[in-house]
TrEMBL record, chains A, E:
SMART domains: AAA. InterPro entries: AAA+_ATPase, ABC_transporter-like_ATP-bd, ABC_transporter-like_CS, Mo/tungstate-bd_C_term_dom, ModC_ABC_ATP-bd, Molybdenum_import_ModC, Mop_domain, P-loop_NTPase. It comes from the Bacteria. Residues 307-379 form the Mop domain. This is Molybdenum import ATP-binding protein ModC. One of its GO terms (molecular function) is ATP binding. Gene3D superfamilies: 2.40.50.100, P-loop containing nucleotide triphosphate hydrolases (3.40.50.300). Residues 1-235 form the ABC transporter domain. It comes from Tistrella bauzanensis. The keyword Cell inner membrane applies. Keywords: ATP-binding, Cell inner membrane, Cell membrane, Membrane, Molybdenum, Nucleotide-binding, Translocase, Transport. The gene is modC. Pfam families: ABC_tran, TOBE.
From TrEMBL, chains C, D:
Pfam families: BPD_transp_1. This is Molybdenum transport system permease. Residues 20-225 form the ABC transmembrane type-1 domain. The keyword Chaperone does not apply. It comes from the Bacteria. The chain crosses the membrane at residues 27-46, 58-80, 92-117, 145-167, 207-225. CDD domains: TM_PBP2 (cd06261). SUPFAM superfamilies: MetI-like. Belongs to the binding-protein-dependent transport system permease family. CysTW subfamily. It comes from Tistrella bauzanensis. Gene3D superfamilies: MetI-like (1.10.3720.10).
Length: 379, 247, 250, 250, 379
C-alpha cells in the first residue's frame, strides 16, 4: 500500500517541482525542506488544487492524476484534506460552523462523539461561538486542524499545522495525530520546520530542496542525510533506535526498553519516563536520539565509580569518526551485537576533538553510548 | 369589446382628466388614458398597442399610424395657438396688454419684440422642434418671419412644455414660444403676443379611432370621441385654453 | 394591485397610490427575475478568463450606454405583441409584456441590469478562491462550495446591487414609457406618474410631492440594506471599523 | 469642439460628429469632476461608522430614484442662471451651466453619481485595513497610507465605477435635456441626437445607427478598462483564475 | 531606560488584557505564553493599533499612551515597527517595493548599504521582483521581517517572525537580530513559541497567561518559573550561566569560557565550539543550559578513567532535589564558590530516581555538572 508520485510542474520561470516518490500509505510521512523548497506546492498538487503539467499520482494503486490517461480527479473527490499554512477558515461561519462544515456539506460522516473528542483535544470548546477573525494565530490553526480531522479524509496533508502552537499544546496534539494514523489508518503527510516534531511522529521522511526530493525513506535512513543538518540546523543531527518494550514500568515509573536487533553482550536496557499510558510489553517503539544527547564512555565500571547520573548506557561499536567543518568530531555508532545487515539502528554523537583523542576513538572500538533518559521523549 | 384605452399627447393631461370624469359621470365606460409624447404613442400603436383612440398633438403622427393601416376614422378635435410669453411682471408686460399683431405690419413688431427681449445673450425657450410639436410650430412661425436662421442659435429647445414654461417663469429665458393653453395655466408667465396663425400650419389635435389588426372600431371609443367633440368636450377644451374645432 | 391603505397615504389620490403600489410590484418582480441572472452574469464576469467575457460585459452595459428611449424602442420591437420574442412567448407561455405591468418590470429589469451586475461581480472578485479550495479539500463539491461560501461572502455585494437596482426601478422612465406606454393602473409607475404631472403646467407641486414618496421608499430600502449589510460585515469581522486611530481617553 | 476627423466617421453627418465629440467631452468633464468626489464619498460610506452615513447614502442614491426629468428640473432650479447656486457660481467664478455643455456635464455627473460611488465604496470595503495598520507601524501617516495602499488596491473598483459612469454619461438623456435643453453643437450630446432623430417619423434607421456609434465607443472603453483591470488583478495575484478545476491532461 | 506598561483592555466578554510591566529598553525581551494568552494583543496596543481602555505606556520616559492625560500618540508617530503573525505584505507592490516602502513613504532613512545588507541576510535577492501572493510561507515572513528592519524603528515588535523558517535560516537571522539590538540599540519585543529561539536571544522574559503577565524579569530568573515548563513543554526546562571569554579559541577551535561568579576551586573552564567570529577574550556571554543537557557525576578522577567524552565539567553544589510529577527528579545546582548573593547562575538537571539514590543527592552535596559542549549553542 503506497502513495506513488511522479510529477513535473513548472511553477514559474525560476521554479519547477520535479519529484518522484513512493511513500508508505500508513503512518506519518514528514516533508522537510527549507523555505521555498516546494513543500506547499507538492501538497497543493496532491490535494488537487494544482494540476501538474505532467504527472502520475496514485493512492493505494488508485490513480488520481495520470497525464498519460488524461486523468485528473477533481479535488473534492480525492478526499484529501489539507491544513494550510494560513488557516483558511470560512470567515462567515463560527468556529462551530467551520468544524461542522465537512459533515454538513461534504461526504464526511464522523462517528458520534468524534466532534466532541476533537473539540476537546484541541481545546476549542470556549471558541465554538466565535468568528475566525477574532481568533489568535494559534487558535485559528487549531480550528483548521480540527476541521480537517472532522472531514474523515483518506489522506491528511498538514502544512506546518503546529507552527503557531506552544510546546505544551503540541505535546497534546502530536500523540493524537499519531493515534489517528495508527488506529484510524489515515496516512498523514506532514510539512514542518520543527525537526523534533517531525522526528517524534514520522516513520518516513522526504527531504526536499529546490523542487526536488533529495531523499525519501524510513526516517532512520534519511535522518543521517547531510542536507538534513544543513537545513534543520544543528538540532537535526541524530540517530534512530528500534526498541521493544521489555516490561511494565518500574517502581520509579520508568519503562524498560530493549533494542530489537541486539543479541548478547551487556544489558542494553534503556529506561524511559513512561508517561500516562505506557505501551504494553512487547510493543515496538521507535526513538530518535539527537546527537547532542549522546555522550561516550569507555569503561562501565569506572562510570559507576564516578557517580555519573546517566543510566542509559548502550554498548556500541564505532562505525566512523569524522572531523567536521565546525571543528567537532562526528562519531557514528552501531549497536554492539546487531546483525550486520540491520543498520537501521544507528546513533550519532558529536564530541570535541580533545575527547576523541583522549578516548582513542577509531572504527570498531567498543564504546558505551550514554543517553540521558529524559532525552528519549514520548513513545 | 376592447377596453377603452386612449393614447393622448401628454399636453392634454388635464383635458383628458376632466373629460374622463365627465364621460364617466355621464354614464360612459371609464377610459384609461395613457399620456406620452405623440411620437412614442404612434410607434406603440404601430407595434400593436391595444389603444382604441389616439389623440395626437400633430397630424403627422396620425398619418404614420394611418400608413400602418390602423386608423378607422380621423376627426379634428381641438385647435391651439402659439404665443410669445415673458416672465409675469417683467418690464415687457407693463407697456400694455397683449399686443395685437394680426396685421401684416405685425410681423415687424414681433421681430422687433423678439430681438428686444433676447437682447445680447438671452435665449428663446421653445419646444424642441425635432420632437415637440409646439416647437415645430414655433420654428415654422419664425421661419415665416424670416428670422429662424438668425434666432435658431439663440433658442433653448426643450423636451417638455413644462420646462419651457419654467425657464420663462423663472427668468432663465427672457421669452418663450409655447401653446396658448400652456401659457394660460402657468401664472408665472404673461402672454405678450399671440402669433398669427398664418405664420404656421394651424395647430390641430386630430383624434383617430384605432382598429387593432382587423378588430372593429370600439363602440366605447366612438362614444368617448363623440363626447370629446360634443358640447361638453368643447367646454372642457375652452376651460384649459384650447379651442374646439367647429365642424 | 397591492393594497397600500395601511401606508396611511390618504393624502395622495387613488391614482398616486396605484402608481406607488405598481412601482413596488414592478420593482419586486424586476429584481426577482433579474437577481438570479445577475448573479450568474456577475460570477461569469468575475471568474471566467476567456476573452469572450467581454461580449457579455458589453451586453450587460448596453442599457446604460443607449438612450433609454432607444432601449425602450428596441424592447418594443422585440417584445411587443408583434415582436419576434414577444409573439413567441405569447404563443408558448401566454406571457405578454406589451402594455402590461410585466413589460414595465421587464424594462426596469433591463435598465437595472448593469447596475445590479457590477457590484455582484466585484463581490465575487473579492471572494477568496482559496476558501473554495479549502472546501474542496474537505470533500465538498464546487457547486455546494459556491452556495455555502462564495455566495454568502458575496452577499453584501449582492445587496448593494439589489439596492442600486431597486432605486433604478423606482426612477426608470424613458425605457418604460417607450416600451409599455403610460397606462394608469397598468404601466403608470411612480416615475411615470411624476412625469405626467410634471408635463402639465402647474403640476410641479404634486409632481415633487409624489417624487418625494419615491425618495422615502428608497430611504426605507437603503436603511434596511445598510442594516443588513453592516450586520453581515460585523459577523465577518469586517464591520466599518476605521483603522484604529488615536483617540483621547476619558 | 474636438476634431474627430481621424476617426474616419465621414459617413456620419457633421451634426452627428459634433454630437459624438460633445458626448466625449461631456463624459470626460463629468468624470473628471465626479471621480474625486465619488472617491471621498465612497471612502466615507465604507469606513465611517456614524449613523449619519445613511444621509450621505440617500443623497448619493437620489438621482437614481427620481425620474430623470425631476432631477433635471431640480438642477435647473438650483443651477440655472437665476438659481441660488447657479447665480452664485456665475458671480463668483463666471461659471455658467445653463444651456452650456458644462451644464450637460453637470447633469451627467449627477446622474452617474450613484453608479460611480457604489463600486468605489465596495472596493474600499474590500481593502484590508490591516495593511494600513502595517503601514502605520512603519511610520507612514494615514493619508499617505491611504494614497499608497488603499487607493491602489481600490483601483479595480474605481475603474469599474468609472466605466459605469462613462456608460451612463453616454446614455444620459432625461436630466440633460431638461436642464440644458437640446442645443445642437452646445448641449446636444449623442444621446440627445439619437432621441432627436427618433422623434421624427422615419428617423428610426439613422437613430439606431447613431446609437450604435455610442455602443462602439462604450465597447472601446470597456475593453480598455477590462485590460487594465485584469493586468492590475494579475499583479495582485488575483487574476480571474477559477478555483483550480480538474482538467484533462494532454 | 525602560519601557513602562500599565494597561487594562477588555477585548471581549471573555478576554481582558491586564498587565503591568517594566521592560528594559535595550536588548531582546521575549514574550512567552500559550496560544490565546494575549501576546499579539499586547503588541497591537504597544504599536498603537489598539487603544487600551485604560493605560499608561512610556518608552524611555516618553509617554505614548496616558489615559490620565487623555494622551494617545498616533501609531505612525510611535516609530514602533511590527512584524505580524500574518506577514501583511502590500499585495500590489513587489518584494522590492515592500522593502522600500518605509523609506519612500515614511520617516525611515536607513544608511546606505543597509538595504542590500538586509536583503542579503534574509536571502531576498531572488525574490525582489516578485509579488507577495506568489511567495511561500517562509519567504513572506522573511520579507515582512526585512521591511520592519528597514523602517529604522525605535522599537521592534516581532510576532513569531521565524515560525515558518527552517532551522538553518533561523541560525542566520537570530545573530543578526542580536547585533541589531546590541549595536543598533533597537530594543526588540519578541513573541515566540520556540523556547530555544527565545532563550538564545532574550535577556528579559515576560511570561503571559490569560491576559496577565505571570512573571517578568531577567531570563535567568524567569526561566525557572513553574508555568514556563507547563507552557513550553519539557524542552523549556533549564538554567542559565553568565560567563566570560577566558581566551582565544584553542587548536581545536573551542572557545574557553569561565563563570563570572566563581572563585577558587577546581578549574571550571567550559569549552564551546567557537564558530566563525568568536568574541574577544573578556567578553561577557550568557548561555542557557537545557536541563536535558546536564548530567551529574561525583568523582572527577573516575570520570577520566571511565573515558567519558564530556569535557565540560562544572563543580556545583546541590541546591535542591525535587521529585516531580512525571517521576523524574529535578536537581537545582549552584556553582561551587559563587557568592551567596549571586544566584543568577543556576543549573537544572533532571535525572532518574535510581540515579538520584545511587548518587545520594542532597542539598549541599558537591557534584560535577556534565555539560555537552555542543549543547551550548552560539554566543
Ligand atoms: N506563482 C508563483 N510565481 C513564482 N514563483 C512561485 C509561485 N508560486 C510559488 N512560487 C515559488 O515556488 C517555490 C515553492 O513554493 P512553496 O510554497 O511550495 O514553498 P514551501 O516549501 O512551502 O516553502 P515554505 O516553507 O516557506 O512555506 C517558492 O520559491 C516560491 O517562491
Ligand atoms: N475580537 C475579539 N473577540 C473576542 N475575543 C478576541 C477578539 N480578539 C482576540 N480575542 C481573544 O483574545 C485572546 C488573545 O488573543 P491574542 O491574539 O493576543 O493571543 P496570542 O497570545 O497572540 O495567541 P497566539 O499565540 O495563538 O497567536 C484570544 O483568546 C483571542 O481569542
Ligand atoms: O435618463 Mo432616463 O434614465 O430618461 O430613463
Ligand atoms: Mg509552504
Ligand atoms: Mg498571536
Amino acid at each position: 500500500m503506497t502513495i506513488d508520485i511522479r510529477l513535473h510542474h513548472q511553477v514559474s520561470d525560476e521554479f519547477a517541482l520535479d519529484v518522484s516518490l513512493t511513500l508508505p500509505s500508513r503512518g506519518v510521512t514528514a516533508v522537510f525542506g527549507r523555505s521555498g523548497a516546494g513543500k506547499s506546492t507538492l501538497l497543493a498538487i496532491l490535494s488537487g488544487l494544482i494540476t501538474p503539467d505532467i504527472g502520475y499520482i496514485a493512492i493505494n494503486g488508485e490513480p488520481v492524476v495520470d497525464s498519460d490517461q488524461r486523468l485528473c480527479v477533481a479535488a473534492h473527490r480525492r478526499r484529501i484534506a489539507v491544513v494550510f499554512q494560513d488557516a483558511r477558515l470560512f470567515p462567515h461561519l463560527t468556529v462551530h460552523g467551520n468544524l461542522d462544515y465537512p459533515r454538513r456539506h461534504g461526504p464526511a460522516r464522523p462517528e458520534p462523539g468524534r466532534f466532541d473528542a476533537v473539540v476537546d483535544l484541541l481545546g476549542l470548546e470556549p471558541l465554538l461561538a466565535r468568528r475566525p477573525r477574532t481568533l489568535s494565530g494559534g487558535e485559528a490553526q487549531r480550528v483548521a486542524l480540527g476541521r480537517a480531522l472532522l472531514a474523515s479524509p483518506r489522506l491528511l496533508l498538514l502544512d506546518e499545522p503546529l507552527a503557531a502552537l506552544d510546546g505544551a499544546r503540541k505535546d497534546e496534539i502530536l500523540p493524537f495525530l499519531d493515534r489517528l494514523t495508527r488506529e484510524g489508518g489515515v496516512p498523514i503527510l506532514y510539512v514542518s520546520h520543527a525537526l523534533d516534531e517531525v522526528m517524534r511522529l514520522a516513520g518516513h521522511l522526504v527531504l526536499m530542496d529546490h523542487g526536488h526530493a533529495l531523499a525519501s525513506g524510513p526516517i532512520a535512513r534519511v535522518a543521517s542525510h547531510p542536507m538534513l543538518a544543513a537545513i534543520a540546523g544543528e538540532a537535526a543531527r541524530g540517530g534512530m533506535l528500534h526498541l521493544v518494550v521489555a516490561g511494565p514500568p518500574d517502581s520509579d515509573g520508568l519503562l524498560p526498553l530493549r533494542p530489537q536487533t541486539m543479541h548478547g553482550g551487556e544489558d542494553p536496557t534503556l529506561h524511559l519516563a513512561a508517561g500516562g499510558a505506557p505501551p504494553a510489553p512487547g510493543t515496538a517503539v521507535r526513538l530518535r536520539i539527537a546527537a547532542r544527547d549522546v555522550a561516550l564512555a569507555l569503561d562501565a565500571a569506572a562510570l559507576d565509580r564516578a557517580g555519573v547520573s546517566i543510566r542509559n548506557r548502550l554498548p556500541c561499536l564505532v562505525r566512523s569518526v569524522v572531523t567536521e567543518a565546525d571543528g567537532l568530531v562526528a562519531v557514528t555508532l552501531d549497536l554492539a551485537g546487531a546483525e550486520d545487515g540491520r543498520r537501521d539502528d544507528v546513533l550519532l554523537a558529536r564530541i570535541t576533538p580533545a575527547a576523541a583523542r583522549d578516548l582513542g576513538l577509531q572504527p570498531g572500538l567498543p564504546v558505551l553510548a550514554l543517553i540521558k533518559s529524559l532525552a528519549l521523549g514520548p513513545v | 369589446d376592447r377596453p377603452l384605452l386612449v393614447f393622448a399627447a401628454a399636453s392634454l393631461a388635464e383635458v383628458m382628466a376632466d373629460a374622463s370624469d365627465g364621460f364617466t359621470r355621464a354614464g360612459g365606460t371609464a377610459p384609461k388614458v395613457s399620456l406620452a409624447g405623440s411620437g412614442t404613442l404612434a410607434r406603440q400603436i404601430i407595434a400593436g398597442a391595444p389603444a382604441t383612440l389616439f389623440i395626437s398633438a400633430h397630424p403627422k403622427w396620425v398619418a404614420e399610424v394611418e400608413k400602418a393601416g390602423l386608423v378607422a376614422e380621423t376627426r379634428p378635435y381641438a385647435a391651439n395657438r402659439i404665443v410669445l410669453v415673458v416672465p409675469a411682471g417683467s418690464a415687457a408686460t407693463t407697456s400694455g396688454a397683449t399686443t395685437s399683431v394680426d396685421g401684416d405690419d405685425g410681423d415687424a413688431a414681433i421681430i422687433a419684440m423678439i430681438d428686444r427681449l433676447l437682447g445680447a445673450d438671452g435665449r428663446l425657450a421653445i419646444g424642441d422642434p425635432a420632437s415637440v410639436p409646439a416647437g415645430q410650430y414655433a420654428r415654422d412661425a419664425l421661419t415665416s418671419l424670416g428670422i429662424w436662421q438668425r434666432v435658431e442659435p439663440r433658442t433653448a429647445p426643450v423636451e417638455n412644455v413644462r420646462v419651457a414654461l419654467a425657464l420663462v417663469a423663472r427668468g432663465e429665458a427672457p421669452a418663450g414660444i409655447v401653446y396658448a393653453s400652456d401659457a394660460a395655466a402657468e401664472p408665472g408667465v404673461a402672454v405678450l403676443a399671440v402669433l398669427p396663425e398664418r405664420l404656421h400650419a394651424p395647430v390641430r389635435y386630430p383624434a383617430a379611432l384605432i382598429t387593432a389588426g382587423g378588430a372593429d372600431v370600439s363602440a366605447d371609443a366612438t362614444a368617448f370621441l363623440d363626447y370629446l367633440t360634443g358640447p361638453e368636450g368643447a367646454k372642457i377644451l375652452r376651460r384649459h385654453g384650447l379651442e374646439p374645432i367647429d365642424r | 394591485m397591492t393594497d397600500l391603505s395601511w401606508l396611511g397615504l390618504g393624502w395622495l389620490g387613488a391614482a398616486e397610490r396605484d402608481a406607488i403600489g405598481l412601482s413596488l410590484q414592478v420593482a419586486a418582480t424586476a429584481l426577482a427575475g433579474l437577481l438570479p441572472l445577475a448573479i450568474v452574469a456577475g460570477w461569469v464576469l468575475a471568474r471566467w478568463r476567456s476573452r469572450a467575457r467581454i461580449v457579455l460585459d458589453v451586453i450587460v452595459h448596453l442599457p446604460l450606454v443607449m438612450p433609454p428611449v432607444v432601449t425602450g424602442y428596441l424592447l418594443l420591437l422585440a417584445f411587443g405583441r408583434k415582436g419576434a420574442i414577444g409573439s413567441l412567448l405569447d404563443q408558448l407561455f401566454g406571457l405578454v409584456f406589451a402594455f402590461r405591468w410585466t413589460g414595465a418590470a421587464l424594462a426596469a429589469a433591463v435598465m437595472a441590469l448593469p447596475l445590479v451586475v457590477r457590484p455582484i461581480r466585484l463581490a465575487f472578485e473579492a471572494a477568496d478562491p482559496r476558501l473554495n479550495q479549502a472546501a474542496a479539500g474537505l470533500g465538498v463539491a464546487p457547486l455546494r462550495a459556491f452556495l455555502t461560501i462564495t455566495l454568502p461572502l458575496a452577499l453584501p455585494g449582492i445587496l448593494a446591487g439589489t439596492i442600486l437596482g431597486f432605486a433604478k426601478c423606482l426612477g426608470e422612465f424613458g425605457a418604460t414609457v417607450t416600451f409599455v406606454s403610460n397606462i394608469p393602473g397598468e404601466t403608470r409607475t411612480l416615475s411615470l406618474a411624476v412625469q405626467t404631472l410634471l408635463s402639465a403646467p402647474g403640476g410641479d407641486g404634486p409632481a415633487l410631492r409624489l417624487a418625494m414618496v419615491g425618495v422615502v421608499i428608497a430611504i426605507g430600502a437603503l436603511v434596511l440594506a445598510e442594516t443588513v449589510t453592516q450586520s453581515m460585515r460585523r459577523r465577518l469581522g469586517l464591520s466599518a471599523v476605521p483603522p484604529s486611530r488615536p483617540r483621547r481617553l476619558a
